[in-house]
Each structure stands twice: as C-alpha cells, then as structure tokens.
Amino acid sequence: MSIKTDRNFDDLAQKFARKVYGELKGDIRLAVIWRDLLATVPGLTDGSSLRILDIGGGLGQLSIRTAELGHRVIYNDLSVEMLSLAQAEADKAKIKDKITWHQGEYQNLKDQLEGRFDLILCHAMAEWLAQPEQLIARLEAMLAEKGTISLTFYNQHSLVYRNLIRGNFKVLENPFEAHGGSLTPGTPLDPVLVEQWVVDAGLHINSNTGIRVFHDYVTTQRGGHRDAASVIEMELRYSLLEPYKAMGRFIHLLINRG
C-alpha cells in the first residue's frame, strides 16, 4: 500500500521509544548498525572529524554516539516530538550543544544545509515515505565524494514470512495495510527494488546485512532466548550470513560511490 504523505511520528514517538528502544529489538538494531559502520567507516574511531547527517534521526542514539567521538553532527527529523526526545537524551549525555538540531522535511535539506557529508545515516525511514523511490537519489546529492550512506529499510520478505509462520494467511491475500497507530510500516520494501534505486543513483552497495534475523520470529522463548547478550551475539553472527540475513526484519545497506 502506498501512502499519500510522509509519516510524521509525532503521535508515535512515545510508543516508538517504549516498544523499540525500551526492548531488546532496539539493542539488536543498534548493535548491528554500529558493528557494520565500524567495519566500513574507519574514520569513525581514528580521530577524524567527519561531517555526519542523521536523517530521520529518531531518538538520536547515533547522533549522540558519533558526536561523543568528536564528529560534526546534524540531526534531522520530521517529528517535533522525536526531536524533543532526542534532545533530552543528548542533554543527559551532556552532548546536546555539540549537535546541530534540524526539524523538517528531508527533501528540503540540500537547499538548507551547506556542503556534503562524509556519512549520511538514514534508518527505518524509507518505508514511511510517500515516495521512497526518490530517497537514494536525494541522499546521493548530499554525499561527499568518498562518503558513505548507511540505510536501513523494512524488509518486505520478513513481513510475508512472519505472517506465514503465525498462520495469518488472510493477511497475505490482499495488499498489506498497516493500522494507523501501528509501528509496522505501510510500505515494506522489496530489497531488489531498493538495490535498483541504488544503482540508478550511480552508487554501489558495499555491505548488506540483516537486522533481527530471528528475534522477531520467536513465539515461545526458550534456552538462549532468555539471555539478551546471547541473543545479540547470535543476531550479530547470523546477520552476516545467507540465507539468514535475507530474512532480517530490516536490511542494512552501506552505500558509496564504488
């Protein structure tokens, strides 16, 4: 199902904070993304001062973490409520004044921000856009020559597989429609289609991993499922391996100019 306007999270911000980053699923997401970034963007930890743009920055975890490392970070989100929550977290970390805060539509950023960026973070946003097919090309226009885009998106295959496992066959008989107050995106994306958008923008996929390749499919916790550290360890291991990474609830792409 396509949506008419980009989804503003003002009404979902508190639920997002509670249901994603108040639970293990948020820890898994951050662990996989950060592991991938460290492996691909050495400038993160070698004392460099990268110019970083965090689009759809949500609660600001990665804006805060990269600012703490001395990078020049601009945070952006469409949601005023999300920005407020992110600023509160940055204030707790005593890093708020080191981040430039920007609220508004991502489509206007190129005209409002000077220069290009060494790292563009864009996580779990594409699936909430009215025109997700425009996203990669717009990010490319703000990317430095040797820069990297870190993109995550909601995997259409995982949505189908999860409903198959749970016996929700009727859900699969019609075009998917998310409930208005749900954190399940209305436009899950086919990885093949996203990869084509990358190619069309003249870019190259440097890394492809899965996020939550088994955690979200578990209906009865047993054994290692009860140990958060073990779950994260296994998620990190299998997020790199086929066929498991292809079943991640989200796909994480690290993109550059090749």
Characterise this structure.
This protein has 258 residues and is an alpha/beta fold. The chain has a single domain, classed as Rossmann fold (3-Layer(aba) Sandwich). A 7-stranded mixed beta sheet has the order 3-2-1-4-5-7-6, sandwiched between helices. α4 links the parallel β2 and β3. α2 packs across α9. It is globular, with a radius of gyration of 18 Å. The two termini are 33 Å apart. The mean pLDDT is 92.
Which structural class do you get from the secondary structure elements? alpha/beta
Which of globular, elongated, flat, extended, rod-shaped describes the shape?
globular
Terminal CA distance: 33 Å
Helix proportion range: 25-40%
Topology:
Layout: H1 13-19, H2 24-40, E1 51-55, H3 61-68, E2 72-77, H4 80-92, E3 99-103, H5 109-112, E4 117-123, H6 135-140, E5 143-154, H7 156-165, H8 191-200, E6 204-211, H9 228-238, E7 250-256
Parallel strand pairs: 1-2, 1-4, 2-3, 4-5
Antiparallel strand pairs: 5-7, 6-7
Helix pairs in contact: 2-9
List keywords for this structure.
258 residues; alpha/beta; Rossmann fold; seven-stranded mixed β-sheet; 7 strands; 33% helix; 19% strand; globular
Question: Gist?
Answer:
The protein has 258 residues and is of the alpha/beta class. It is built from nine helices and seven strands. The chain has a single domain, classed as Rossmann fold (3-Layer(aba) Sandwich), CATH 3.40.50.
